[in-house]
Specification:
Helix content: 40-55%
Radius of gyration: 50 Å
Structural class: alpha/beta
CATH topology of the largest domain: Heat Shock Protein 90
Number of helices: 21
Number of strands: 20
Shape: elongated
Strand content: 15-25%
Strand order of the largest sheet: 10-12-13-15-14
CATH architecture of the largest domain: 2-Layer Sandwich
Distance between the termini: 136 Å
Length: 629
């Protein structure tokens, strides 16, 4: 056998073994002259059924009508190759999508002897492509149909490359007007100047997403509030090919939020004004009573003094009324959590016993007070003055709940709370009076809430008590049943010192340790307060200089030899804090006492100096001077 015959045999064996492609020959007129296994599998014909038949029978009727088979052979012969895709028929009449290549065959002399035809079944590939195309078309239609969102694409430089109906609706640009334009034209001039569009793209590219809200511009120049999301688009690799940008117009929502916020602010303002009205009514009533007592007593004292009569009783009345005014101010400060507490170990039994006379005098003869204390009770951590004021409030409330008279019980005991660490002392005030309904009980500690009627109380009594107790680290508990009475419990932490060291207040007439005569500068912008302070100091034997402002005080400090300055804190032009700072520049060793009508100084004003709260007594002033002199 020749080499040529051997190679030909091998070629035939190779062609016959291929099953994924139909490989067969046609004679010059298009008659099938060979048929491989791939052709049989793909088209369904056995060699005996198809050899000698014209290949046109593989074409659809519409292709036959168009003369496609003849055109394919002609093109192959004239151009040396024909390739196309289209629908073809199997033996059973079913269709498949075929890729067809037809090449002319010539012998060694160049004579045309037929055609080689290779066909591949691409039905599944076409189905996948068609599914992808339909999916892309559906997605395109979906995007184009969305009108509530602007959904469009940008190229890597930020130029618009697609545009949907939503973008057109609320940005105002037709597709032909905006494609190819940079998306920064939607931003405000100040945002463009600040480089926000470029930063948005850099953020999206670097972090995988950019999201923000802000004002954007429509075509007509009007603004709208937009929520913007930008996502990067990459090809199959890591190459950035553009961005998707989704924008939603939230102008109406923002306006609604702003309207709601404004409405809330108006509501809170109305609540504030109502609260101020209640506070003003109650406090004005109480202060008017106090002022009436002071002015009336002093007026009577002045007239009786002119007649040479005894005026002690009227002066005592004026002082008592003034003390009530100071107590009312303390209530207000405690309510505002601004009362400066001096926490110490307080013997509750001693504190209540020392109040017995004033309590009984306050509640009147129709009500008795019974105390119930154990033989041993640890001291409570509290401010004794404020605690006594709280007990006074609770006893007065108990009196008001007993219009026909009765008994008020004040008791105390050590307590342990299950949800806390450490021991407590429970001080209770109990009355068998009218009690409170559930609604009243729920609002009992609410600021300005009172059942005593307009102008008959500030509604701050229980709120003040609660504020004081919480500042001490304790709790206020109230139990009440209509018709059966009320029990109010003050729970205070046990002090970390023995009861023997509990502090008791100075007796009213006790004088502080005497000090030598000092040269003292008194500073206050209120001439009445300044006169009283200077007089107190003079009565103590000190030499007193006066100044009604910070600047005038500095002139005195620069020219006089002083031992001490007593200055108000709240003054116009120069505060007490500023005065102290400048005074130390002149006289670093000058001792200072700061006086304030507020319980604490503004944030950041930590002077580290002895302080007195207005109003103060001569005893308190002398005691403070003795501590630093």
């Amino acid at each position: 056998m020749s080499v040529k015959s051997l190679n030909s045999g091998r070629a035939d064996l190779l062609v016959q073994s291929i099953t994924d492609y139909a490989i067969y020959m046609l004679d010059p007129s298009g008659i099938v002259s060979s048929w491989n296994a791939g052709a049989e599998r793909l088209k369904g014909y056995r060699p005996s059924e198809i050899i000698g038949q014209h290949f046109a029978q593989f074409y659809t009727e519409e292709d036959l009508a168009s003369g496609i088979p003849a055109k394919a052979l002609k093109t192959s012969l004239e151009e040396g190759r024909f390739e196309a895709e289209g629908w073809r028929l199997r033996k059973d009449g079913s269709r498949f999508w075929a890729n067809v290549v037809i090449d002319p065959i010539r012998d060694e002399q160049g004579t045309h002897v037929g055609f080689a035809k290779i066909t591949r079944d691409l039905t599944e590939h076409r189905a996948s492509e068609e599914a992808l195309r339909q999916s892309e078309e559906r997605f395109r239609l979906l995007v184009q149909s969305v009108t509530d969102y602007a959904i469009y694409m940008l190229d890597p430089d930020g130029k618009v490359s697609s545009w949907n109906a939503g973008a057109q609706r609320f940005k105002g640009y037709q597709e032909c007007e905006i494609i190819g334009e940079h998306f920064s034209r939607f931003y405000l001039p100040e945002d463009r100047a600040a480089g926000i569009p470029d930063r948005a793209l850099k953020t999206a590219a670097g972090e995988g997403r950019f999201e923000a809200e802000g004002w954007r511009l429509r075509k007509d120049g009007s603004r709208f509030w937009a929520h913007v999301v930008i996502d990067p688009i990459h090809d199959g690799g890591a190459t950035l090919i553009g961005f998707t940008k989704i924008t939603r117009d939230l102008t109406e929502r923002k306006r609604a939020q702003e309207a709601l916020q404004k409405s809330q602010e108006q509501f809170f303002q109305a609540q504030k004004m109502e609260a101020i009205g209640k506070l003003t009514g109650g406090v004005a009533h109480d202060f008017n009573n106090i002022l009436a007592a002071i002015l009336g007593s002093l007026s009577l004292a002045k007239r009786r003094l002119a007649d040479g009569a005894d005026i002690d009783r009227f002066l005592e009345n004026a002082m008592t009324a003034a003390e009530r005014g100071a107590t009312l101010s303390q209530r207000m400060l405690a309510f505002a959590r601004k009362q400066e507490l001096s926490l110490e170990a307080v013997d509750l039994q001693d504190a209540v016993r020392s109040m017995a006379e004033i309590l009984q005098r306050t509640i009147g003869p129709g009500i008795t007070i019974r105390t119930d204390f154990p033989l041993s009770l640890p001291p409570a951590l509290a401010d004794r003055t404020q605690l006594e004021l709280a007990v006074m409030n609770l006893v007065v409330n108990a009196r008001d709940a007993l219009p026909e008279g009765g008994e008020v019980i004040i008791s105390a005991e050590e307590a342990f709370l299950p949800d806390t660490v450490g021991a407590y002392v429970r001080l209770s005030v109990i009355d068998p009076g009218d009690g409170m309904s559930a609604g009243t009980l729920a609002r009992a500690t609410e600021p300005f809430f009172t059942t005593k009627g307009v102008g008959k109380g500030t509604g701050l009594g229980l709120s003040m008590v609660q504020g004081m107790v919480e500042q001490c680290g304790g709790r206020l508990l109230i139990e009440s049943v209509p018709g059966k009475g009320t029990k109010v419990e003050i729970l205070l932490p046990v002090a970390e010192v023995s009861a023997a060291t509990a502090v008791t207040p100075e007796a009213d007439g006790e004088q502080a340790s005497p000090t030598g005569a000092l040269r003292i500068l008194a500073v206050d912008d209120d001439e009445i307060v300044l006169l009283n302070t200077a007089t107190m100091l003079s009565d103590m034997g000190h030499q007193v200089l006066q100044a009604d402002s910070g600047p005038s005080a500095l002139r005195v400090i620069a020219s006089e030899d002083l031992d001490l300055m007593v200055t108000d804190y709240a003054m116009p032009d120069m505060s007490g804090g500023e005065l102290v700072e400048k005074a130390r520049e002149i006289r670093p060793d000058l001792k200072v006492i700061v006086v304030s009508g507020f319980a604490d100084l503004p944030d950041g004003e930590e002077l580290g100096l002895p302080r007195l709260s207005k109003p103060f007594t001569e005893v308190e002033l002398a005691k403070t001077i003795s501590q630093i002199a």
